[in-house]
Amino acid sequence: MAYYVFKIAITALLIVAIAEISKRSSFIGALLASVPLVSVLAMVWLYVDTRDSDKVAALASSVFWLVLPSLALFIALPLMLKQGYNFYLSMGLSILLTIGCYWLMVTLLNQAGIEL
């Protein structure tokens, strides 16, 4: 149980730290947020828990393919906010667009014979 609390605390600490740093510098916050910290932590936790390099490789490969559709959020959100849309509406629509892009990517990858 203590191990899970440790993993949660480390992960939460990184997210809170990035949010706090972003208040002072959007560039440094963006730099830290753009580093795939969550993916790296997930791979570390997976390896520590399983000692299975193949599972880590499969996770890394899947993350690679799913990074592309995730970029839709980072394109749509600032565009909507700059157009004057409400933050929550912009975030919600950006998330829906991103979900659609994920669905499209998974569908295309399945048709190409690439299994995630």
Structure description:
The chain has 116 residues and is mostly helical. The protein has a domain at 53-116. Helices cover 87% and strands 0% of the residues. It has five helices and no strands. The chain has helices at residues 2-24, 26-34, 37-50, 53-82, 87-111. Helix 1 (2-24) packs antiparallel against helix 2 (26-34) and helix 3 (37-50) runs antiparallel to helix 4. The longest helix is centred in the middle third of the chain and has 30 residues, at 53-82. It is flat and about 50 Å long. The relative contact order is 0.08. The mean pLDDT is 92.
Condensed summary:
Helix content is 87%, strand content 0%. It is built from five helices and no strands.
Give the topology.
Elements: H1 2-24, H2 26-34, H3 37-50, H4 53-82, H5 87-111
Largest β sheet strand count, sense and barrel closure? none
Quantity of strands, as a count: 0
| General shape | flat
Strand/helix succession: HHHHH
Amino- and carboxy-terminal Cα gap: 30 Å
Which residues sit in consecutive blocks of at least 5 with pLDDT less than 50?
none
Roughly what fraction of the amino acids lie in strands? under 5%
Cα-based radius of gyration, to the nearest Å: 17 Å
Overall structural class, as computed from helix and strand content, comes to mainly alpha
Q: Mean of residue pLDDT?
A: 92
List keywords for this structure.
116 residues; mainly alpha
